Amino acid sequence: MPKSLLQSFLAACALLASVSVMAQTVTDVPLSDADVKIKSAAQNAAQNAVQNAASEAAKKLPTAEEIAAERARLERMRAALAAERAALEKYKADLVQRQQEAAAAAAKAKADAEAKARIEKAIEEKEIGTAGSVPPPAKDDPVSVKNMSPEELQRQRQLAIERAKAIEKAVAVQKAADAKKKAAAAAASAAQTTTPKDKDVATMKLRRITQNKVKYVHLRDVAVNYGLTFAYTKNKANKVSGAVIYDKTRKAIFSSSYRDGTVNGVQVYFLYPMLIKNSEPYISEVDFLTCLDPLLRYKTAVKLGMKTIMIDAGHGGSDPGAINGAHKEKVYTLQIAKRLQTQLEKLGFRVIMTRTGDTYPTLQERAALCKKYKPDLFISIHCNSSTNKTPAGIETYRAVPVGGTETKGSKVKTEKQSANEFDANNSRLAYEIQKGVLAATGGTDRGTRHQAIYVTGNATCPAVLVEVGYLSNEAEVKKIASPDYQNKIVSGILAGLAGYGSFLR
Asked: Which CATH number fits domain 308-503: 3.30.465.10, 3.40.50.800, 3.40.630.40, 3.30.750.24?
C-alpha cells in the first residue's frame, strides 16, 4: 500500500477515536438541550469525516494490474540478485584457479631456476662433458668462467643445455632400441612356442597318378607343402630302398618294398608301399589323407571332444581269450581296464565300461553300447598271442580306411563303416597311444596297424584296440600279470591320450 494512503487511513482512525473519547466524556456530566445538539452535530461530523476518509482511502487502494506489476518488479529484482550471486561464485572459482596456476608457475620457475643453477655450477666447475660441438674451457685455458663476457657465458650455458638435451635424447634412443630388441626377442620366443599353422590339404598342389587302380600323390610335393626336406634312402647295394621327409621336429620314413615305415620314431604300417614311377616317389592318396597327414599335422582339422571315454575289456565270461597255463587274457584285460578307469576318473573324465566283471558282452553288444552312450573315444584292451613263442611287444590297431587293406591282407576295403568318419583321428589316437605305452613300458615297437575288427570298425567315435603284450611269450606274460607293469601300461595310455588331446583343436 502506498505511504500517503496509509497516512490518510491512520488519521481518520485517530479522529474517530478522539470523537469517541469526547462523547464518552460528555456522557459523564449532565447535558443541556443545546449541549445535546452540539454533541449530536459533533458525532455526525466525526462519522462523516471517517466515512469520507475511508472513501478516499478506498479510492487510493492499488488495482490488480498494479499489484501484478509490483510482483513482476520484485521477481526481476530477485533474478538480478541470483545472477549477481552466480557471477560472484564464478569469480571466486576463477580466483582459485588463477591461484593454482600461479602456484604451479612458481613451482616450475623454481625448478627451472634450480636446473639453471646446477648447469651454471657445472659450467663453473667444468663438469659438463664434450657432448656438444664446443668443449668447455680446459684447465690450463687462461679464459675462466669468472672473467668470461656475459655473451660468452650465455653461449657456454646454451652449449651445456644442448649437451644435456643430446644426452637425454641418446638415452631415450637407447631405451627405445632396448625395448625393440626385447619385443623382438619376445616375438621370437612366442614364435618358437606357438603352434605353427597347418596348411589346408584342399589347397595343396600335388601331382597325382593312378597305378593298378590305386591313386598316388607325389611325395616330393607332399614334403614341399609341409615345409619338409625330401631324400631317398638306399640299401647296402646302394640302390634306392625308400625315402625320408623331415625337418627339425618331424620325420617320416617310407619303404619301397614293404608297408612298414616310421613317423617320428614310431613304427607305422601304411596301407601300401611307396611307389617309384619314372624315377619319382609316390605314396598312396589314402595313406596321405588318413595316415601321414594326421601324423604330420600340428592340429586336427576336425573339432572333436574328449570328455567321455568308453573302455572295452576284451573277451570275458565264456570267452577267456588267449591262454598260457593259468594266465587268461580276459583276466588281465579287465584288470588293466579297471586301473585305467580309476585314473581317468581321478582326472575328471567320464568313463563307461563295456564290462565290469567276468561277463561276455558280444561284439555286437559292445558296438551297440558305443552307439547308445556316444562316447568321445573308444579304447579296447587286449593281449596278443602266437603259436611262435618269440614275438613280444606292443601293437595298436585302428579301422581300415576305405580304399585300403589290412596290414596282413591284400583285399581292398570298399564299404564304409561308422568308424571311417574318424579315419584321421583314429590314426593320430593309435599313434599317440602306441608311443605312450612304448615309452612307459620299454616294450618292443610292433607298430600301429590296420585290421577289420568289429568293435573298432563299428564305433561311433575315434577308436583303437591296444594289444598290450604277448601272453605266449614267457617273459612278457609275467610282466602283464604284474600290477606294476599294468600300471605302466595305464600310464602309457594316459600319456597317449594327453598327446592326442593336444592334437585336438
From this structure: 3.40.630.40
Instruction: Look at residue 267 and give its three-state secondary structure.
Output: strand
CA 311/CA 354 separation, integer angstroms: 6
**Which one, of 419, 422, 411, 427, lies nearest residue 456 by Cα?**
419
pLDDT at 138: 44
Report CA-CA distances (Å) from 238 to 29, 232, 258, 460. 171, 11, 18, 47
Distances (CA, A) of 318 to 72, 137, 455: 113, 108, 18
Contact 396, 378 (CB under 8 A): no
* Identity of residue 29: V
- Helices and strands, number each (H, E), in the chain: 13, 17
Per-residue model confidence (pLDDT) at position 301: 65
Helix (H), strand (E) at residue 331: helix 329-346
| Beta carbons of 197 and 225 less than 8 angstroms apart | no
Using CB atoms within 10 Å of the CB of residue 42, give its burial: 0 to 12 exposed, 13 to 18 middle, 19+ buried.
middle
Residue pair 451/397 in contact (Cβ under 8 Å)? The answer is: yes
Residue 180 CA, chain-centre distance (Å), reads 25
The answer, yes or no, to whether residue 93 has pLDDT greater than 90, is no
Distance separating the N- and C-terminal Cα atoms of the chain = 94
pLDDT in tens, 264-321: 999 999 999 999 999 999 999 999 999 999 999 988 867 788 999 999 999 999 999 9
pTM: 0.63
pLDDT per residue over 378-391, tens digit each?
A: 999 999 999 999 99
Residue 210 neighbours by CB under 8 Å, 6+ apart: 216
Q: Confidence band (pLDDT; 50, 70, 90) for 134?
A: very low
Pairing of strands 280-284, 214-218: antiparallel
Among 265, 289, 165, 166, which Cα is nearest to 217's? 289
**E strand spans, 97-177:** none
Instruction: Report the top-level CATH class of 201-286.
Output: alpha beta
DSSP state of 178: H
| C-beta neighbour count of 91 within 10 angstroms | 10
Residue 144 has pLDDT above 60, yes or no: no
CA distance 378 to 456: 8
Instruction: Give which of 250, 241, 194 is closest to 223, Cα–Cα.
Output: 250
Cα–Cα distance measured from residue 87 to residue 81, given in angstroms and rounded to the nearest whole number: 10
Judge contact between 461 and 376, C-beta under 8 A: yes
Measured CA angle at 55 (ends 54, 57), to 5 deg: 60
Backbone φ and ψ of 209, nearest 5°? -140, 165
Q: Which amino acid is at 502?
A: S
Question: Can you give the residue ranges of every domain in the chain?
Answer: 3-61, 131-194, 201-286, 308-503
Q: Of the candidates 471, 22, 448, which has an alpha carbon nearest to the alpha carbon of residue 263?
A: 448
